Amino acid sequence: MKGSQRAELRSEAHHLDPAVHVGQNGLSPTLIASLDDALRTHELVKVRLGRNAELKPRDAAVELAGSTASEVVQVIGRTATFYRQNPELIRKDGQLPPWRR
């Protein structure tokens, strides 16, 4: 992903609320499936790491990105943003991107 694309996605993600929360159970298969589902429907997703999470935010983001075949857009504090394009989503000219709907 190019730097300009990443910057555009960062600005789009600024207004999003975290859709997935990592709790005390860590990066469980259920959490990964939840993130995978959110990426499939929205493409751009924020994940919030709880204070009890054992991993460092950057390490957790890299592991989640590898598990979901997505890209880490940014990690700020305990919040990470992921992007994965879904070619199956129908796109029309002038229509809002899936994360804004």
Describe the protein in words.
- This protein has 101 residues and is α+β, with helices and mostly antiparallel strands.
- The chain has one domain: Translation Initiation Factor IF3 (2-Layer Sandwich), CATH 3.30.110.
- The chain is built from three helices and four strands.
- It has helices at residues 3-13, 29-42, 57-68, and strands at residues 20-22, 44-49, 71-76, 79-83.
- It has a four-stranded mixed sheet, with helices on both faces.
- Strand 1, helix 2 (29-42) and strand 2 (44-49) form a beta-alpha-beta unit.
- The mean pLDDT is 87.
Rg from C-alpha positions?
A: 13 Å
Strand order of the largest sheet: 1-2-4-3
The structural class is alpha+beta
Total tally of structural domains: 1
CATH topology: Translation Initiation Factor IF3
What can be said about this structure in brief?
This protein is α+β, with helices and mostly antiparallel strands. It has helices at 3-13, 29-42, 57-68; strands spanning 20-22, 44-49, 71-76, 79-83. The protein contains three helices and four strands; from the N terminus they run αβαβαββ.
Keywords:
globular, four-stranded mixed β-sheet, Translation Initiation Factor IF3, 4 strands, 101 residues
Question: What's the structural blueprint in terms of helices and strands?
Answer:
Blueprint: H1 3-13, E1 20-22, H2 29-42, E2 44-49, H3 57-68, E3 71-76, E4 79-83
